[in-house]
Amino acid sequence: MSNWKDNYEQLLYADETELKEALAEAQSLSWKNFGKRIKFYAPSFMYYKTGYFHSSPAAFPSISVTGRFCALKCKHCGGKVLNTMLPAVTPEQLVSLCTQWKQKGAVGCLISGGCLPDGSVPLGRFIDAIAEVKRDLGLTVVVHTGVIELSMAKRLKDAGVDAALIDIIGSDETIKEIYQLNVEVQDFDRSLKALHESGIPFVPHVLVGLHYGKLKGELKALHMISKYEPSAVIVIALMPIHGTPMEDVPPTTSTDIAKVLTIARLTMPDTPLVLGCMRPKGRGKGEIDVLAVEAGVNAIAFPAEEAIKQAESLGLEISFSSLCCSQIYEDIRRNLW
Predict the structure, then answer these.
(1) CA 254 to CA 272: how far, in whole Å?
(2) 206-240: per-residue pLDDT in tens?
(3) Rounded percentage of the chain residues whose pLDDT exceeds 90
(4) For residues 147 and 103, is the Cβ–Cβ distance under 8 A?
(5) Domain ranges, residue 222
(6) Is the whole-model pTM more than 0.85?
(7) Is the pLDDT of residue 24 over 60?
(8) Is 25 or 73 the better-scoring residue by pLDDT?
């Protein structure tokens, strides 16, 4: 066993040899605790087709309760991501839209939206509609909360939400500079505590390289998350988006993503770990995904074929799903992976 447990920060500066050693340690730990398995997810909000699996066009739509509105206009997103979602800006529209997609074959949906100036997603007036969708349609419902209070977390739990997703930022400078948001790291810590205390399954996301492609606050984010027993942890990475202030920022490197994945596994050995859907595309995607397999992740969203082949070469048991990758914790619990 290495001495990284005493100082995970040194892993952020590991050379190639040290990183390989850390990846092997993380992989061994993962296989010990979860077995030699991996699940690949391809929900329908992004087209996906390989020689192994293709996404269903209707299985898991992504919905915005604010349409294209977001008060923050973060430098890395600028509200552009909302353009890829289906709008449902009233509770009635949400129920109607979910009903329509259920008839098309949907098994679940992501309910998200732009943030208010305080960093929260305005889900409050949609609680009854969400409960109706769960009760009458039986869909798997995953929500993106933003900064959240305990009372709201409890309401989402009571509505039957299957998982609450939240991005966790570990740097005050990044929150102000990139999110342009007037909250602090401690507000994200309180949000994690609220979700934990409410009893709702919750899946924090750590966005690698959010600070102009550089590591800053990721270790702090993982430390905060590890205190609250999340259902799973998803690591994503900066993906420069055309038309945003950060469109020309170099994508996060595969090495930095691998380092954060490794630290996540070593700090939370019993927590399902996922490489999520937001990460650099293009030629580097295969390298990122292969390193994730090497790090012993339990799941990857929209995997490159190279990663699937790598998993096969390692003798991993492989399965595919059209659900959101946040559901890895439930698939593990039900042995559906």
Answers:
(1) 20
(2) 999 999 999 999 999 999 999 999 999 999 999 99
(3) 89
(4) no
(5) 4-333
(6) yes
(7) yes
(8) 25
Residue 145's CB: how many other CB atoms inside 10 A?
26
- Domain containing residue 55: CATH number: 3.20.20.70
What domain count does the chain have? Answer: 1
pLDDT of residue 1: 45
List the structure tokens of 157. 């739990």
Question: The tokens 């995607």 sit on which residue?
Answer: 285
Query: How far apart, in whole angstroms, are the C-alpha atoms of residue 25 and residue 2?
Result: 8
**SS3 readout for 4-60:** HHHCHHHHHHCCHHHHHHHHHHHHHHHHHHHCCEEEEECCCCCCCECCCCECCCCCC
The answer to whether 152 and 145 are in contact (CB under 8 A) is yes
Query: How many residues are present in the chain?
Result: 337
Of residues 232, 220, 268, 207, the one with CA closest to residue 74: 207
Q: Would you tell me how many other CB atoms lie within 10 Å of the CB of residue 208?
A: 25
Give 258-268 pLDDT, tens digit per residue: 999 999 999 99
Contact present, 29 and 272 (Cβ < 8 Å): no
| CA–CA distance, 126 with 63 (Å, rounded to integer) | 12
Q: Evaluate whether 228 touches 249 at the Cβ level (below 8 Å).
A: no
Mean pLDDT confidence for 286-315: 97
Q: Alpha helix (H) ranges present in the chain? A: 16-34, 91-103, 127-132, 150-159, 172-177, 185-198, 218-226, 254-267, 284-294, 305-313, 328-333
Report the phi/psi class of residue 243: left, alpha or beta, with left for phi > 0 and alpha for psi in -120 to 50: left
